[in-house]
Specification:
The chain is an all-alpha fold. It contains four helices and no strands. Pfam families: CENP-S.
């Protein structure tokens, strides 16, 4: 692995470690528990490795479908083994689609109004 890739990987891992630490701190406050540094490091390592696996699988799904872009359908395939994660991703996907549809409708209305104003002139 080149120096730039290794440096990027280490920076990503540090960001994941920081985020895991923040989440553990918040959860610890809510549940009145403390997390040791070793536990935070273990959660970080597990999370980072799982993200690596997800990334590899997502690339494989897109390649199998002869695409160069990962789609939401690929992400849904990744989540199929976890019912809770699958439901969450499905809900988010539907939410994003609804927002996209609203945006299209609003953009269409603006174009219609602009066209009407131009034709009046």
């Amino acid at each position: 692995m080149s120096l730039d890739k290794e440096e990027t990987r280490q920076r990503l891992k540090a960001a994941v470690h920081f985020t895991v630490g923040q989440l553990c701190q918040k959860m610890g406050e809510v549940h009145r528990r403390d997390f040791s540094r070793q536990v935070i490091a273990a959660i970080t390592e597990t999370t980072f490795r799982q993200c690596d696996v997800f990334a590899t699988d997502l690339e494989a799904f897109a390649r199998h479908a002869k695409r160069s872009t990962v789609t939401t359908e690929d992400v849904k395939l990744i989540a199929r083994r976890s019912t809770a994660l699958s439901k969450y991703i499905q809900n988010k996907s539907e939410e994003l689609n609804q927002q996209r549809e609203l945006k299209k409708k609003n953009t269409g209305k603006r174009k219609s109004r602009d066209t009407e104003e131009e034709s009046r002139e």
